[in-house]
Design a protein that fits this description.
heterodimer, A: mainly alpha, two-stranded antiparallel sheet, 4% strand, B: 33% helix
Chain lengths: 559, 430
């Protein structure tokens, strides 16, 4: 065995060198149309540290922040802020956890056949609450990134991980939706080790069901998991890199035979189970050749190592670090980076044995991150857009937010990517339909007074406004009075300045504010009428109007 | 859309104040724009409409147009084969349609359906994402990003925002180029911007502020222009749709599915006479690696449900066109990023394959019904090294033929080469 392993090692090291020379750049399956990649690194202008720069830092390293938090980070300075970002796990997050527990979300429901299924709304609320309120912002952001990366949808994988049979099969902490189990795994490794994450995800029941590996068995191989493991999760599509072949996929599929789940116990109506199980009975013991290595199977249960060996071989390819690094850069910094930057950072990833924090720290420390080029260089995804505005305006617990994306056609539902390729990026989020959706979302948000819209002139009596605004709690409304009082806002200029800063975070112009001030000083009859902070009706109309109008600016859609 | 035209629209834009009453100045401006902005042939031809339907995931062509007497087919598909299925909709001695597709069979019998066999491209790629992009950009060899339909739109003089329209949540790459992307709509009724319904008296102030904000010079960030232009396109297209949507009245009953609703939206917009030339919509779910059929009943299952939806929805749509008197103005075609393997897998499903058929639907005065192209051989020595069919028609030939034959534009510049194929000539030249 040892000799074989040494030989394998020698073979794969030489593989490594030939791989390096073949790598010219990975194929991002959604390349950006704007620029061709060039080989030399351009020198970029760095951002002056201040409010706008700190906001950029918080929008990328988390889900944006209210003005006070941005101010706090400005005061800390970039170096200390960066250090704090990677020590967030030392910050106490019990307030968020307590708030979440208090919501008593019922993540599991029974369908009409008595089967236990995921309550999708509740699950989405569970995560959204964390995104909005957690102090571990980078962790939630990374988890969100990995969720897109290992894209699995709750709309098909609506099953629940089991508990023993009995009168009450739902046991706190033991009975959970499979997609929650996956989410916990992603969070566990989000700032951990990527290679270990892949080994764990290969055993994730949701993933196994989603990519049909539960049925992958000797004599009847199913390629779905093997294909996406190579193409989407590690090496990236290979038509430009030639990092792997169709045969590799077919052989890898055979290596993963038997990686299945405990089948549902049909004797109970609850159908709880779905834990990972390795079935050597279903395993294909014949040798497989993957990435030029012959994998000779061990006997019995030990043959599970065939699949793990495939993963290890993938990580011996230099392309893996490049593909993942590129994807992280395009998500956290800007699209279409120079080759050299990616190769350099991929080296950091490899030499760190695929630990994620050192790579992320290198990305955030890179001069191109806090740069004029990176500032507002991406388009907010619907979740970033929605969670961002809630954090910016101090809304802690918007109920039914999970449905908003669907109702306004924003195009993104948590836990429900359209397919295993995950979500789109940047311009893909914005088309005429979705921009109208975002604007209407802002109308809902700015107009939410806890009163019904019924009877008011809305679009064809559009029920979206109606259902959402029925008797809502204060937690999902913008507390206009509180903001005015806390910040001592007294004039139109004060108000426009506050909300302009809160939403546009330094990327607005004085002209924008001037237009809005003029709007505030125009009466309901269209004639000039100085804004009166003591007139509740005017305050109600105009302040909500300013919030809405600010969000219409193209800049507001940019991250 | 031309930038100047966009800015003219923003002056006429107003937020929705009430569904019941449309302010008179808005009506006038829409009428104005209908006359000046939406004129005829330079922008696209309302008498030559093309509807593009994507079957996303890789439709199993072998079980759609079934070689029901072919021994290789029968022996390769022990679990999924439909050779002896009852109710096969036989087209002739060799081929039959899946039993779920009665709507298509009716169209076939009425000379409204063309089946293009064996469509694919050299060195087939079996990644959903790469293969889709190949079809979207008409570029099998190089990774390109401009969509073929977008290139067609860009080739038109004074191309209008509404030459191409996507029905759905995200614009396909076919309709995206570096010069912009097509508008996208899910539902006509909610394709308008709503403002605070508690204070309708403040609308005109908000309008004025919005217009001024859009006129302000903004800081130059990378996607700034892209977002601004989309906003302007959105306002322009929503104005155009406000009045136009009332022109649709139809007795045709569409099935109760999201896909059918999208087809109905297309019908409504055609009725609105907005000169949209190319519509696009997609139906997903075709990636049937498992449970393509139900165990023990190969007529039921995921694939059967999809084909039934397709057949009923497109039949309803075509009937609607006849009802509206627009059937001679419309050609519909379907595509999928690849077919599926000849052999079924062990999960009552099929894995990614290669060549596939395309359907074309149109009045017989415009489209020659029947078969086009050659059904690929299923004999073992005719398959490729992974056991998949070899294509016989390059998809670019079909695209080219539609562009030059139906849309009347220069296919070579749009598709980037001459892909004329004499066996692909189903469009009857006027």
């Amino acid at each position: 065995m040892k000799i074989t392993l040494t030989l394998i090692l020698i073979l794969s090291t030489s593989q490594l060198f030939s791989q390096i020379s073949r790598v010219v750049g990975s194929y991002p399956w959604r390349p950006h149309p704007t620029k061709q990649r060039h080989r030399s690194v351009e020198v970029v202008e760095s951002l002056d540290w201040g409010f706008e720069a700190a906001a950029h830092f918080l929008r990328r390293g988390g889900f944006s922040a209210p003005p006070e938090e941005i101010g706090r980070i400005v005061g800390k300075g970039f170096s200390d802020a960066l250090e704090e970002l990677f020590k967030q796990d030392e910050i106490d997050d019990s307030e968020m956890e307590a708030g979440l527990a208090e919501k008593k979300l019922q993540l599991i429901r029974q369908n009409k056949n008595g089967r236990y299924r995921t309550n999708v709304d509740a699950l989405q609320q569970w995560w959204l609450y964390r995104m909005i309120n957690s102090k571990h912002q980078l962790l939630e952001k990374m988890t969100f990134f990995w969720h897109d990366h290992f894209a699995t949808s709750v709309l098909q994988i609506h099953f629940v991980l089991g508990a023993p049979e009995g009168d009450d099969p739902i046991i706190d902490g033991e009975t959970e939706p499979l997609m929650l189990v996956q989410n916990r795994t992603l969070r566990k490794y989000a700032l951990g080790n990527f290679k270990e994450m892949v080994h764990e995800i290969a055993r994730d029941p949701a993933m196994i069901l989603w990519l049909n590996n539960a049925e992958n068995r000797v004599g009847k191989p199913n390629e779905n998991w093997a294909r996406e493991l190579f193409e989407l999760f590690t090496l990236g599509e290979s038509s430009e890199t030639n990092a792997y072949t169709e045969m590799d996929i077919q052989e890898a599929a055979r290596a993963f035979t038997g990686w299945t789940i405990v089948p549902p116990r049909l004797s109970t109506s609850n159908l709880l189970a779905f834990d990972f199980r390795y079935s050597s009975r279903w395993h294909d013991f014949e040798p497989k050749t993957v990435l030029d290595e012959v994998i000779v199977s061990a006997g019995g249960q030990a043959s599970i190592i065939d699949g793990d060996r495939v993963i290890d071989l993938i990580f011996e390819q230099s392309q893996t670090a490049i593909f993942i690094t590129r994807k992280l850069w395009e998500y956290f910094v800007y699209p279409n980076p120079d080759e050299q930057i990616i190769e350099e950072l991929a080296g950091v990833f490899r030499s760190g044995n695929y630990e994620i924090p050192p790579l992320m720290k290198a990305i955030f420390s890179h001069p191109q991150f806090m740069s004029v080029k990176a500032l507002r260089s991406k388009i907010k995804s619907p979740i970033e857009f929605a969670v961002g505005v809630f954090r910016e305006l101090g809304i802690k617990d918007p109920e039914n937010l999970s449905r908003l994306s669907e109702r306004f056609g924003l195009g993104q539902q948590l836990f429900a990517p359209p397919d295993v390729g995950g979500w789109t990026n940047d311009e893909g989020w914005i088309n005429t339909g979705t921009i109208i959706g975002r604007y209407n979302f802002m109308t809902f948000l700015s107009c939410n007074r806890g009163r019904s819209f019924q009877g008011l002139p809305t679009m064809n009596g559009d029920a979206r406004f109606d259902v959402i605004c029925h008797g809502r709690q204060a937690e999902d409304q913008i507390d206009i009075e509180e903001i005015i009082e806390t910040n001592n806002l007294q004039s139109a200029a004060d108000i426009v300045n506050y909300f302009g800063t809160a939403l546009l975070q330094g990327s607005h112009t004085l002209d924008d504010l001037y237009v809005l001030e003029e709007y505030m000083n125009t009466g309901l009859d269209g004639l000039p009428d100085p804004f009166d902070i003591n007139n509740p009706e005017i305050v109600d109309t105009k302040v909500r109007g300013v919030i809405f109008l600010l969000s219409l600016l193209p800049t507001y859609q940019l991250n | 859309m031309n930038r100047n035209t966009r800015r003219n629209f923003i002056k006429d834009f107003t937020f929705l104040s009430t569904a019941a009453v449309v302010p008179t100045f808005l009506v006038k401006s829409v009428q104005g724009s209908m006359q000046t902005g939406m004129a005829n042939t330079e922008l696209g031809n309302p008498n030559r409409i093309m509807v593009v339907i994507e079957f996303a995931g890789g439709n199993d062509g072998l079980n759609t147009v079934i070689p029901y007497t072919n021994d290789y087919y029968l022996s390769s598909r022990p679990a999924l084969g439909l050779g002896s299925a009852p109710n096969l909709l036989t087209l002739d001695q060799e081929y039959a349609l899946h039993p779920a597709m009665s709507g298509f069979k009716e169209m076939w019998d009425n000379d409204l359906l063309t089946i293009v066999h064996g469509v694919g491209y050299p060195n087939p790629n079996r990644s959903h994402f790469r293969s889709r992009d190949i079809w979207h950009t008409a570029e099998p060899e190089n990774v390109k990003t401009d969509g073929w339909l977008a290139k067609y739109f860009n080739s038109l003089e004074n191309s209008d925002a509404l030459v191409g329209l996507n029905i759905g949540g995200s614009v396909p790459r076919s309709m995206i180029s570096s010069e912009g992307s097509a508008p996208s709509i899910l539902n006509i009724d909610t394709y308008q911007i709503q403002t605070d319904p508690f204070h309708p008296d403040d609308y005109s102030n908000k309008n004025a502020a919005f217009q001024k904000l859009m006129e302000q010079p903004q800081k130059k960030f990378s996607f700034q222009d892209y977002v601004s232009e989309t906003i302007l396109d959105a306002t322009a297209s929503s104005i155009a749709l406000i009045e136009g949507r009332d022109k649709y009245s139809s007795i045709i009953e569409y099935p109760n599915s999201a896909f059918a609703r999208n087809m109905k939206t297309i019908a409504q917009i055609i009725a609105a006479d907005l000169d949209v030339t190319v519509f696009y919509t997609r139906l997903g779910g075709f990636d049937t690696h498992a449970n393509q059929v139900v165990a023990g009943n190969s007529l039921q299952g995921i694939h059967a449900n999809l084909l039934e939806d397709v057949s009923q929805s497109l039949k309803a749509f075509y009937d609607d066109m006849v009802e509206m008197g627009r059937d001679k103005d419309v050609v519909v075609f379907t595509w999928s990023e690849f077919g599926r393997r000849l052999h079924d897998n062990g999960s009552l499903g099929t894995d990614h394959g290669t060549a596939n058929e395309m359907f074309v639907i149109g009045d017989s005065s415009n489209v020659q019904s029947g078969y086009a192209g050659i059904y690929p051989s299923l004999a073992p020595d005719a398959l490729d090294q992974t056991g998949d069919m070899v294509y016989t028609i390059d998809f670019r030939s079909v695209y080219s033929h539609l562009i030059s034959g139906w849309l009347g534009a220069d296919a070579t510049s749009v598709i980037g080469g001459d892909f004329t194929d004499p066996s692909i000539d189903f469009i009857k030249m006027a």
